[in-house]
Amino acid sequence: MSHRIFNFSAGPAMLPTEALEKSAQALVNYQGKGFGIAEVSHRGKEFEAVNDEAIARCKQLLGLGDTHDVLFLQGGATQLFTVIPLNFLHGSADYLVSGEWSKKAASFAKEVGKINTVASSEASNFDHAPPPGQWKLASDADYFHVCSNETVHGHRLVAWPQHPNLIVDASSEFLSRPHPVKDCALVYGGAQKNLGPAGVVLVLVRKDLYPKQKKVPSKLWSFKDQAENKSMINTPPTFGIYVLLEIFRWLEAQGGLAAMEKRNAAKAALLYDAIDSSNGFYKGTVSDQQQRSHMNVTYRLPSEALTDEFVKTAAAGGMMGLKGYRTVGGIRASIYNAMPVEGCQALAAFMRDFASKKS
Ligand SMILES: Cc1ncc(COP(=O)(O)O)c(C=O)c1O
To answer: Domains plus CATH for the chain?
Structure first.
């Protein structure tokens, strides 16, 4: 294995080395057959088997039965911001606006139809997600859309809400803990954080939604048609789906999602401890500590100059991708499933050392 550094990028992000090595092998020579998995027809037996196994393993990891379909779509999570309302927004839909991404989802939906913002934390720069007590849900909404982990602002919904038609953008926490997908109408996320390379969107859709779909201009945007065609109305991103399969195998070998949840909580605690014990040198950006994300740890230093120095010195020490989102600044350490505990230990030690030298 070649040398790999600790990459804290928010996405595209670090992927497990074992899964990458197996994928690299399959890209060059799939199962010793003399061709790569990206070089064969998506309708041939090799790729069909990959697609079927990926669907089955994804369901197995999530404990999903026959109520939902697993789709591998394209166009990024952003495309789903439009495709979801195109299919399901008849009268009005509820949106929780808790950060940059749920705000974007709501603004795209507004282009399609009427939405009701149930609550927004924009007035406090999205430093938390509005708690359920503040939500003004409509009784007749077509669906309720939330983003379960706000990648930019570093907070998450500790528990996903209960709603008969809950739609969740889980992009930045997909498969990092067990999810109550069984109780959701639709869950989706871009692959490029926890699941694989950019270019695939994992979508879990409850089958009883299909009769409620509106007519859309193209089959490509119809969940029902995509499900009936196993996401192969046209050529799917075959290699991306292959990497997802290797990630699903890897997750199972790690002990599944409950084991990942434990490990991710322990990793996040290392960094939050370094923030909390810094005598105010590092300031977390999330006002409700309960909601602090286990995937994106966001904090600020006393000045821009120190922030720049922190990022540069960390990079020189083999820790890259720590600069906060362009509109927010500060530091963001993204510690998805593939970030080893050692990466968080190294960053926590670096934070303590940096604070002690600069305080
Ligand atoms: C929570 C969340 N939703 C949606 C997106 C948009 O994803 P994409 O760039 O795949 O459209 C992102 C990207 O970072 C995200 O973090």
So the answer is: 17-253 (3.40.640.10), 255-358 (3.90.1150.10)
Question: What letter would DSSP give residue 33?
Answer: S
Question: Within 6 Å (CB) of ligand 1, which residues are found?
Answer: 11, 76-78, 101, 147, 151, 169, 171-172, 190
Question: Is 193 annotated as catalytic?
Answer: yes
Tens digit of pLDDT per residue, the chain (359 long)? 567 899 999 999 999 999 999 999 999 999 999 999 999 999 999 999 999 999 999 999 999 999 999 999 999 999 999 999 999 999 999 999 999 999 999 999 999 999 999 999 999 999 999 999 999 999 999 999 999 999 999 999 999 999 999 999 999 999 999 999 999 999 999 999 999 999 999 999 999 999 999 999 999 999 999 999 999 999 999 999 999 999 999 999 999 999 999 999 999 999 999 999 999 999 999 999 999 999 999 999 999 999 999 999 999 999 999 999 988 889 999 999 999 999 999 999 999 999 999 99
CB-based contact 194:250 (threshold 8 Å): no
Q: Is 288 a catalytic residue?
A: no
Ligand 1, atom 10: closest residue by C-alpha: 76
Contact predicate 313/354, CB 8 Å: yes
Distance CA 260, CA 337 (A): 7
